[in-house]
Amino acid sequence: MDQIFVPEQQNTQTQHRLLLLGERQGKKSPEGVEKSLGLNDSGSTWSNFWRGFGWNIADKNKPSHNITHNGPSKRVARNIFSVLPGDTQWISCILVSRWDNISGPRVEHVWSGTETLGEDNLMSVSRQTLCGELAREDTDENASVESKFHLLPEIGYCFTSFVFTAPYGQNAASSRFSLSIVVRMKLYQKYLMLHNIVEDRMLQLVSQLQTLLVKDWSTAINVFSVQLQPFVTKMEDVFHSSLPPPLLSRTFVHHPSQYTPEFISRVVTSHLQTHGSTIIIGSDPERINTFIDSLCMFNISWNERHRSSHCRSPSTFIPDLAIQGVVTTTISEEEVIQSMLPSTVVDLNTFIVKQTPPFHEYNILRKNYLRSQLDSRDKSLQENPWKAQELFRVVKTGAPLVDKLLGELYGCPTYLRTPFLVQSVKLLVRKAIQLIRYVQAEIERSHVRQLEANTVKKIRVHMDLGQESDFYLLLGIAEKLFPGIYVMLAGDPAFFIELQFIELFESF
Description:
The protein is α/β, with parallel strands linked by helices and 508 residues long. The chain has 18 helices and 11 strands. The protein folds into 4 domains: 12-66, no CATH class; 78-239, no CATH class; 248-394; 401-495, no CATH class. Helices cover 45% and strands 14% of the residues. Strand 9 and strand 10 form a beta hairpin. The chain starts with 11 loop residues before the first helix and ends with a helix. One of its GO terms (biological process) is autophagy.
């Protein structure tokens, strides 16, 4: 670089103003900056000065657009784009970004879905995600993953990002990364219905990407691209799932003769206990679809209808659908455990109703499964060694609340059954809200996070929930309205296991 000469008549303040204007007015010619400062000195002195900032002035009479700026290179390289594996109609792209201490946020790789985003939009996503990480001191690779949801209507996109820490190459220092999924703003309302599912699946992808980055950055992206395909395929099925309005004349609400009241009671009881998540299996697709239309009338939210599906072709199980039908005679534990919520499995061939453990126990089993799955991929094992001990439990009887509801339902004239069922489901929701308010009052009074057994027993007596089936049925509804109430009342299994270990060690 040539030596920079500053005219002697210019003081330090003028030099500072020149520096600021030279940095901020990249599109403005040096002559324009000189005029804005009231300087009119011509000759090689100013040429040498501007050359110090990276501007090459060969002739002052040339137009300003010919002045070249030798600034930093672009932060989005041309060779980082690839096609998102799988066929998607709603994911615009998925991208990985990294914070660079010199140049700031950088886009490391982009998987284009329905469209190819421009460099400005990609950098907007990266900046919104990573610029807030500038002052973060936590660089531990085991630090928790932080999720962020952004709306950028000015560019027409919304996106969910997950910020995590990983080494940038083998034996390299840790850096802050983000994995983002970008969706068009016009799909915003539909996306919100599936946000929790997308977040859960993306967290699994982040764990896989972290493991790959620790090994080798050069191969991590290629391996991760293969792991994206099942994510895209399953999320595409969930996004486009929806049930049409049911034909009420074909449901068991109007014609229960093909099923016994005892069987219907067991199905509805287990369906509400497992938060409205049920899988119908059998050999007759039409019979399965009719049962799905009947069962969806007991769901408390219309969003659950948009996350339900009739039998598909080919018939496969899709995790996290509220109600779905699968033409098969059996379904594996490894498939069911992938869902975020407990599930009910109804076999229309054998009339057997099974369900997974309650919500607080199911969460522990699912975490163990996901951890084992991640370890098996890290060790390049062909199969996940995880095995659940009695994941399914047979439901033998229905809840008294459901028996009473169905008895009154079938006692009504046919044309009154649908409105009566709607009001009955609302009454169950109100009873669940009453349970929530009671628990909140006890929590505030006792200043604890988990109620004692005597307090829970008192609540059940006051609300006439003596039967376990009624209690867990209302808990299944209340958990959807007030997340966390399940652990408050039923307890945290992990905490009980810890207490057992403490008591065991103290006994020696």
